[in-house]
Each structure stands twice: as C-alpha cells, then as structure tokens.
Amino acid sequence: MAAAITAAKAQARGLRVDVSSAGVRAEDTIAPPAVAVLRARDIDVAADRRAVQATADLVRSADLILCATVAHRELVCAEFLPATDADADAGDLAARIVVWAEFVARARAAAPETDLAGLLASPPLPMPAAEIDLADPAGRGDPAYAAAAAQIDTLADALLDIVATHSR
After folding, report:
1. What is the CA radius of gyration of the chain?
2. CA atoms of 150 and 134, how far apart (whole Å)
3. Beta-bridge partners for 125
4. pLDDT tens profile 128-166
5. Alpha-carbon dihedral 37, 148, 135, 81, rounded to 10 degrees
6. What is the CATH code of the structural domain delimited by 2-166?
7. Within 10 A of 149 (CB to CB), how many other CB atoms are there?
8. Could you say which residues form the signal peptide (predicted)?
C-alpha cells in the first residue's frame, strides 16, 4: 500500500522516482482491504499481485530503504547487514535503512541545501517508536487500512517534498 500510494503521488507531481516494495516476511498477496483502499483512490493494483521478498541484492541496490517501524528496521538490519563491521559497505547500507517517519523528521530539521547523502549521513533523531511507527492494519479490518493509508498519505507527501528539495 505504501509503495503504491507514494508512486501515485510522485506521478501526480511529475517527479521521476522509482518506488518499489519488498518485505522481509512478505505475505503471498496484497490484503483485500489494502486493494480496496487503493482502488478507492483510483490506484490500479492487481488483487492477485504477488509480494516481493527482499533479497540482499535488492537491499544493497536501493538508494533508500524505508521501514514502517523501528522493529521493522531492526529486522531488515539483522537480516541484511553483514555480521561484522569488516565490510566497508555495512555503514553505508545501515545509513540507507531508515524508519520512514524518523527520516522525514530528520529531513525537516536539516538545512534545505543538505542533499540526500547528507541526510543519510546525519544521525537518526532520538524518537520513541510510538511516535514514528506506522500502524500495522493487518487483521484489524477495513477502518485500520483506511487509517494506515492516511498515515501513508502524510509520509508520502513529506517524502516527496524531501526528494524535491534535497535531491540534486
């Protein structure tokens, strides 16, 4: 749902960004309530769309990995960061794995001339998970999916503002 909403918003703004989604423990298909929320927004998504499982190559090739929650970021790091600090790319990769809402807050606090690399190099803001975690609607019914989509709207708009302001 997050990738579809963000991609639709980027397209509506005329921004050229590649938005994709992959899960560490991805379900087989997108949840029917998520499909309903997306279709209500005129975002075309196949109900039988297969989830993409994250892989080491996919994670390494991404410019930015947005995690929904602090626990999700920890899981992605545990799964895909090298077991030792001997890997020179580990620090760069760790910096690109962020909690979406924390990254938005970090970017809002940064100087406008800070580019994406500078934002990623800056330390995460000390924020409690309760303030930055995206609510997981799974198994909580249609209203939970609508509420999650509203959170995603806010984060996607903020992210695209950041891309427009901090990309060079």
Report:
1. 16
2. 10
3. none
4. 888 899 988 988 889 999 999 999 999 999 999 988 887
5. 80
6. 3.40.50.2300
7. 22
8. none
